[in-house]
Amino acid sequence: MALAKISGENRRIKSILFLIFCALAGIFPHFIEPSKNLFPSITLAVLLGGYGLRVVLQDRRDNYQLQKEYLIKDEKFVETLPKVDVLVAARDEENVIERLVSRLLSIEYPEEKLSLWIIDDGSQDRTPDLLQKLRTNFPRINVLSRPLMSGGGKSGALNSVLNKTDGEWLFILDADAQLQSNVLLRAIALALHGGWSAVQLRKSVVNCDLNPIASYQAMEMAMDAVIQRGRLAFGGVSELRGNGQLINRKKLESCGGFNEQTITDDLDLSFRFLLTRSPIVIMWDPPIQEEAVETLSALFRQRKRWAEGGLQRFFDYWPLLISKRLSNFKKIDLSCFFLLQYVLPVVSFIDFIVSLILFDMPLYWPLSIVAFGISSLAFWKGCSQHSEGPSLPSPNFINILGATIYLAHWFIVIPFIVFKMSLFRKTLIWEKTDHIGS
Questions:
Q1: What is the pLDDT of residues 270-299, one digit of tens each?
Q2: What are the φ and ψ backbone dihedral angles of 120, each rounded to 5 degrees?
Q3: Which domains does the chain have, with CATH numbers?
């Protein structure tokens, strides 16, 4: 099966089969005699809890950081820097587009080796007019306009500019990205000296003081980076996160470019890189800074897209994920991640519904407690580390408790998405996150 030909066929059937499996797993323990009905949950809690604990403990502050910072100031190194294309897909970004251009122009990199591109993907607000003025004032900014409903979402927008650029590396940013001026130099140095095919910058939140929702998102991003770096250090799999990803063009082309049949280009591309043995590293400092969504409705809208895209890639690539392309340890890592991230929320939801019907006690609580406990540890570890970006929330008991409770929204979002994917046909629409301009 060629990666370039995977287009997401039969996702609805695969989702139905996944739902049936989760339903059986959630119902089955309720028909085991009471003395043994917790055995499945306790067994999984021990196995997955041990995996999760080791992953979190594997992350170290100096993991995958550029150890020789002087390299970015070394004249010989600067002379040999590769050409980089900075790409931003923007739709209806009038609140942040001017700040974005200012940030792009401040990037420290040899001007002759850096091209800056903004793809206006059918904006219906003032974004096209602002880009025209900015292009006049700053000729270094290249603008490509796509008509509304051009198709392919963010992947289509990024693909549309690839034949107009020739950089050896692509630096992908979101329109609300804020970054330190030397971040590209440091990411390139890490990629070149570490032999990485892609570098994902840790994501941080610029408006984390706004309200608890934003604060918990900042903690969640730190937790995610800890887990990603721990999985990689443990010999497992790390993933791209969309904003702040530095990608080797040849590796991108070798796995078919950006997939226009997915709603989460970064998660899909992560699996394509994995299957073509193109390693991804997570860089802690400096981070890429972005806005957290500010309301519960916006949070759920964003997370539904993330959940659906995350499941889509497992449904699309599972034959290759269990093939000889991956080592046994990477298969184990992916299996544990899949069970904790996607299976547990659905099984727990069904377990809860069955317990209400049977006037019984939920039986997967030991596994859920372990999963939340590991998450709390990752929250604490992430927020305890130094950050060159915005200050992370204090890892005190109240904040960690609140963030752990906040994390339970996945136990609502993922079951909802699984039922939706099973019952309704999906029309691929790029539902962007609104940016306020924090």
A1: 999 999 999 999 999 999 999 999 999 999
A2: -80, 105
A3: 3-61+322-423 (no CATH), 69-219+238-293 (3.90.550.10)
